[in-house]
Design brief:
Distance between the termini: 27 Å
Structural class: alpha/beta
Strand content: 5-15%
Strand order of the largest sheet: 2-8-7-6-5-3-4
Number of strands: 13
Order of helices and strands: EHHEHEHEEHEHEEHHEEHEEEH
Oligomer: single chain
Number of helices: 10
Largest sheet: 7 strands, mixed
Length: 373
């Protein structure tokens, strides 16, 4: 099959005998990361020492944020890389909900668990009610302060219509926060064009930033003056080194920063993002749809298998299969060098990263699964 991204695989450090289909949990390492990190440790930290902060470290959260901004349709100055997805989600929800004269936070019923936990915490802290609702039956009213939605469902791979749901929230005067963890690096996203209020996402999945790499937060320029996040740490101060007693937030997206950034992880992510240079997201999306369609066609008739990922274009780049022995099968596949993952009680997930996965791997995974069954 035609693969305009075939050459990109060479940029990743992958063993040819392993079929790695878990990029939706942890992306594979780009080759350039190890060399870049050696330079950071030996030269920037080892030789420049404290001077590294004035030689690029301090601005790195915004600089790397702008690189991610290109992948999510955000103009420069609107994305900052810092903290974890959970922390950024807390910032976003609190900023959207507190001070509101409305009564509820709405979260999609299939949300990733930590999103639900945090939404409940924010509801308790702000005195708002928390209500869950299926995205296809999202009933919003003038009581709704903020809606939290996962762009791609982590269990099924279902893709939500960001344009339609954002418009629906805005029609009743509610704000919308999007979780992009399973869609960033998967398909073209247009946060600015769609008028999204706030968005968060992780970088260790399809962006290949490495285990525990820092997450990102999108705050559009127009919303930055009123973005009052609850974690007023010194990194978000207008003059962080003035050591003033009063907190005055930075006028830009840096106000979303909290504490000292994790420079080693941040610069590893910066190096990993180099693989996106010259890559068209339209090609990534087209290949991802083709890969997942090809794999689904190969496994849909296997005994005991139910494909629960949408067959149309409303899916991310993962294929989820239901089987009563999903846990055992996931382990036996891994023993045979086919790496996917399992979600209790009965779901096998296979994440296809178009930058490094190919059609031969889809066929090898399907053949191996068929033999086990």
């Amino acid at each position: 099959m035609n693969d305009p991204l075939a050459h990109v695989r060479a940029l990743f450090d992958l063993d040819d005998d392993v079929v790695y289909l878990d990029g939706n949990s942890l992306g594979a390492p780009p080759r350039a990361v190890a060399e870049r990190m050696a330079h950071v440790v030996r030269h920037q930290w080892g030789r420049r020492l404290i001077r590294g902060w004035s030689e690029g470290w301090w601005e790195a959260p915004q600089r790397v944020g702008d690189r991610i901004g290109r992948l999510v349709g955000a103009a420069p100055g609107q994305v900052v890389v810092a903290d974890s997805t959970s922390v950024n989600l807390f910032k976003a929800l609190m900023a959207a909900a507190r001070g509101s004269d409305r009564a509820e936070i709405v979260v999609d019923a299939g949300t990733f668990p930590t999103d639900g936990y945090l939404a409940r915490s924010v509801a308790e802290l702000t005195g708002l009610a928390l209500r869950s609702a299926p995205p296809d039956r999202l009933e919003l009213t003038e009581r709704t302060a903020v809606v939290l939605l996962n762009h791609v469902d982590y269990r099924t791979g279902r893709l939500l219509d960001m344009a339609a749901l954002t418009e629906r929230a805005h029609a009743v005067g509610a704000k919308v926060v999007w979780d992009l963890c399973h869609s960033v690096g998967v398909l073209p996203i247009e946060l600015d064009a769609l008028g999204v209020d706030l968005a968060v996402g992780c970088t260790y999945k399809f962006l290949n930033g490495g285990p525990g790499s820092p997450a990102f937060l999108y705050v559009p320029t127009a919303a930055q003056p009123s973005f009052e996040q609850p974690l007023t740490g010194w990194n978000g101060h207008r003059e962080p080194f003035a050591m003033a007693e009063d907190y005055r937030p930075d006028p830009g997206v840096a106000r979303a920063r909290v504490g000292t950034p994790d420079i080693l992880s941040l610069l590893a992510l910066d190096a990993a993002l180099d693989v996106w240079d010259g890559v068209a997201l339209a090609d990534v999306r087209a290949k991802g749809l083709a890969l997942t369609a090809h794999f689904m066609a190969l496994v849909e008739d296997l005994p005991g298998i139910e494909v629960i990922t949408p067959r149309d274009e409303w899916r991310g780049h993962q294929v989820s299969l239901r089987h009563p022995e999903a846990r055992r099968l996931t382990g036996e596949l891994a023993d045979r060098q086919v790496i996917g993952d399992h979600r209790p009680p009965d779901v096998l997930r296979f994440g296809f990263a178009p930058l490094y996965n190919n059609f031969d791997e889809a066929e090898r995974a399907a053949t191996t699964l068929a033999k086990l069954l």
